[in-house]
Amino acid sequence: MKKQNMKQNQKNERVYIFDTTLRDGEQAPGASLNTDEKMKIAVQLEKLGVDIIEAGFPAASPGDFEAVEKIARMVKKSVVAGLARAIKKDIEACAKAIKPAKRGRIHTFISSSDIHLKYQFKKTREEALQSAVEAVKLARHFSDDVEFSAMDASRSELDYLCKMIEMAIKHGARTVNIPDTVGYAVPDDFGKTIAAIRNRVPNINKAVISVHCHNDLGLAVSNSVSAIQNGARQVECTINGIGERAGNASLEEIVMILKTRADKYPYYTNITTKEIYKTSRLVSTLTGFMIQPNKAIVGNNAFAHESGIHQDGMLKYRQTYEIMTPQEIGIPSSRLVMGKHSGRHAFKKRLEDLGYHLSEELLETLFARFKDLADKKKDVYDEDIEALIEEKIFSSTELYQMTYLHTSAGSSTLPTATLKIKKGDHEVQEAATGDGPVDAVFNAIDRATGFKGKLVNYALKALTQGRDAQGEVTVSLTINGDEVHGRGISTDVIEASAKAYLNGVNKLLLGHKKKSAKAAFEAMKGVKL
Ligand code: MN
Predict the structure, then answer these.
(1) 66 C-alpha to ligand 1 centroid (Å)
(2) Per the domain annotation, does 53 fall within a domain?
């Protein structure tokens, strides 16, 4: 059996996974990540086994540059790519940012569709072709690994697209990317485009064909798979499918399609599927983008069998209704419950089972918090333990920290909140009233931090079952049109709300994106601390 598998694998062709969670994913409205958060995701992406990590767009802002450079310094196994328009200053910034990488890639692009060239770039086809050639040549001057993208390829005239790809390869592009930038393609057409490129571009065997699909019509994954069947050997995708507008092709779906349906698709990837769940959770936590319960592969209900007939079948023979196992993507098999009698050793063991190998120091801090939590709620679930770790991740980057909170509310009192907020060595105390205790808390935080943003969304959910479950609050805040998400967890939902709001304020103030930097500056003007 084993021998047969090996033979099979030798015959199968490899598909390279190019993850753009930190670039296209981070471009999603409200998903801004700071450098520290990007680095945490990059570490996990490398563990997941992605071949290429697109770490950002270095010319976009100093923050983006810094993140790409730091990731380039840190990552050893994956290729680290940076995005650059077909413009000298972009390519130079990108080259500088990826310089420390063991294996760095410059990813440069220009549009190939008439609609983009005419209305956005104001270039003729000949001019765009020339820009593409010069960009690739310049990029090759800095790196052997150059990828060229023909933006809006799926809406471009095929002869011209083929010409542009041929020229990019001729001048040194090792990967040529065919994006469906606006999510307009459908699987059979898109597959045919890839096949045509393979047949028509004379030097195509000198480059890897890549695809980059958007999900505006819900076809990003289908289009990517169709492209693979027609010769694409690199797929650009993101964790949880996040990205511009409706998002990008979802990494976990593509990888699990190729794995689960290996009978139909003779390809393989280098992905360690057991790391999928953890990566998905980390990205969701740090971006504040919740995963819909019915999301394929990583949604909470993806492996939940509710119907009686299905459950009966599952108990008799799992494969009756299960095409993949939760273990394959790293969902912990038993939801072990812990409580206040659980000791340090059991806690450490559980963390290790969940995939966390932490320093003794961090373990001590978390154990103390675990004990506090076990005093407040009887059963501590895996989700609670993971929330403790995630909270620790948050607090390491917080500008403001809440040290005290008191609220009073009721049917005949005016809701009031008093809190103390710390920034460095300074502490300030504020009180405010509101429509309800949550509103009062938010008003008090605004006063203490000088924040003048707007709350656009508020959601509260129970993290686990039971009346003593921890509440998880997510908020969306905007300031000057810039949006971020904040998240907070506590057994007390008012406290969770305060933490979420403050987390959002911190993210806005620490924001590094162009718009965020301006917003942060505006917001800082009124800061008291
Ligand atoms: Mn894109």
Answers:
(1) 21
(2) yes
The verdict on residue 234 lying in a domain is: yes
Beta-carbon count within 10 A of 523 CB: 22
Separation of CA 485 and ligand 1 centre (Å): 21
Distance 401 CA to ligand 1 centre (A): 36
Q: 360 CA to middle of ligand 1, Å?
A: 41
Tokens found for residue 448: 């203490």
Distance 27 CA to ligand 1 centre (A): 9
82 CA → ligand 1 middle, Å? 13
Q: Of the given ranges (218-227, 390-399, 447-456), which has the lowest mean pLDDT?
A: 390-399
The answer on 324 and 439 residing in a single domain is: no
pTM: 0.76
Q: Output the CA 25–ligand 1 centroid distance in Å.
A: 8
Number of domains present in the structure of the chain: 3
- Ligand 1 centroid to residue 362 C-alpha, Å: 38
Q: Are residues 469 and 514 in the same domain?
A: yes
Distance of CA 165 from the midpoint of ligand 1 (Å): 18
423 and 345 in a single domain? The answer is no
| Alpha carbon distance 226, 230 (integer Å) | 6
What separation in Å is there between the alpha carbon of 247 and the centre of ligand 1? Answer: 8
Query: Residues 388, 369: contact at Cβ < 8 Å?
Result: yes
Burial status of residue 259 (CB atoms within 10 A of its CB: 0-12, 13-18, 19 or more): middle
- CA–centroid distance, residue 24 to ligand 1 (Å): 5
Domain-terminating residue out of 287, 316, 333: 287
In this prediction, residue 511 has a pLDDT band, given cuts at 50, 70 and 90, of low
Range of the domain at 119: 13-287
Question: Does some domain include residue 296?
Answer: no
- List all residues 6 or more positions away from 57 whose beta carbon is below 8 Å from its beta carbon: 23, 64, 82, 83, 84
CB atoms within 10 A of CB 99: 13
Cα pseudo-dihedral 181, 186, 189, 190, rounded to 10: 40
pLDDT in tens, 316-374: 777 777 899 999 999 865 556 788 888 888 888 888 777 777 788 888 989 998 998 88
- The two beta strands, 482-490 and 471-479, are antiparallel
Q: Please check whether residue 24 lies inside any domain of the structure.
A: yes
Please tell me whether residues 277 and 219 are part of one structural domain. Answer: yes
CATH code for the domain of 434: 3.30.160.270
